[in-house]
Amino acid sequence: MTGGPAFEDLLRTLAPQVLGALARRHRDFAAAEDAVQEALLAAALQWPDEGVPDNPRGWLLTVATRRLIDRLRSEQAQRRREETAAAMQPPGERVARGPHDDHGTDAAADDDDTLTLLFLCCHPALSAPSQLALTLRAVGGLTTGEIASAFLVPEATMAQRISRAKQSIKAAGAEFAMVPQPERGERIAVVLHVLYLIFNEGYTASSGPHLQRGELTREGIRLARELHRLLPEDGEVAGLLSLMLLTDARRAARTASDGSIVALADQDRGRWNEDAIGEGTALISAALARAPLGPYQLQAAIAAVHAEAADARDTDWRQILALYVLLDRLAPNPIVTLNHAVAVAMVHGPQAALRMLDELEGDERIAGHHRLQAVRGHVLEMDGRDAAAREAYREAARRTTSIPEQRYLEGRAARLAAGAAERDG
Amino acid sequence: MKYMLLIYDNANTREMFAADGGEAMAADMDALLEELTQSGELIGGEALADPSNTKVVRTHDGVPAITDGPLAEAKEHFGGYLIVDCDSPERATEIAGRWPNASFAAMEVRPLMDGSGTEM
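^ inputs. structure came back:
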């Protein structure tokens, strides 16, 4: 899109509102979603030349409605006897003089719409890649091309994923309607997971040629912020937003100028983003004080403890260990146990951590994973067992499919080899 | 996660596709490609010309030496590839298992390296 970030932000903010209003009125979510995309593209072409209209939301809704009706009419003409028009306006009713309520701003209705949209796009019937793609398009207002380049796949592949996602929603019988209260908790958990994956896709991308992917980080935070605004009382929503802010705060320090990874302990903490740390810390402190505990809050709390140490040596590892004990109990998974082992090494020493790692070798979910070998290398290095540490780093480097991680791990191994050569020679 | 599925041929492959049953194999291939397109998993793929069209290039002291023919004569040779983006390694091997070559030569499933990474 052209027109600069402010213009883009406006379109992305309005996208779910317009789609919500349209889907609420016309019920055919898939068709409404296509129509809104067309309206967004039209705006991206026209507004930079003609200026942003006085009521941009109304403009988008009018254009999208017209496109939707054109589409439904042509379908109807093709299949005159079929009941495609069940939900559409009576033919002849002109959009331009349509009802005024949806053209003005009804903040409460917009909020409900955005939440309903998020639930629909993160419907449990969809695969994770479909949930991500559809959320970014329908709620985030990104174009298919932008999403495709963010995920490094051809545009045709991404278009197919999105249309497949919409078919799955239809097949599951899901409609544009608010999820009833008893199912809310479960569905919010899925939404949080999707937003976390969006953020993470961008965060793990290195700088330079993958800048487009980095935009997913911004988008993940923006959507989490929006969700927090809609559900301010939900501790896990606050926890996720806090986790994203505290993680993203390290962005400038986590890669060297050549794009290589800098370990947490070696980062120049002066380059951490203080505003993001302040906001993230305040969010998590408030959430922990009032909401029931959850895994995102615990991960955010761990990130906040790291963030408050001005020097890696000042890190309060005892507190981090206590938080990992809770996390391991609340949401046990091998990656959590692996990070838990790092905290154990820092508090109780490498031997205790190695015992935990040995146990993880028996867990088939992580046994072949490069991260297990990378942590083993780190703990062995702490223990002064350089040759074994080197072998573990090399094994981790063979197993990872990430180029920057491979470089980092080979670098750790090479550093130990150089140290050994110095001592021997 | 993106994977390259390496398709191996043997000396009889082209004959097999021309003989009885060849049409059914080709139809299986088309159906699988269509399924992968529909699901949004297919990223791309190409078939390679017969190994007899190969040139081998080696540079000695900056001077390239070009010879005809493949690097090594083997019972099975690399005939083409697919790139898929799928949810799990199990799904990637399942796709490979359905490509006809898996039943008379072999398929290799290899993850692609990725520019992303996390701090450790």
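The longest helix of chain A spans residues 4-26. Chain A is about 70% helix and 0% strand.
thumbs up if we can close this ticket
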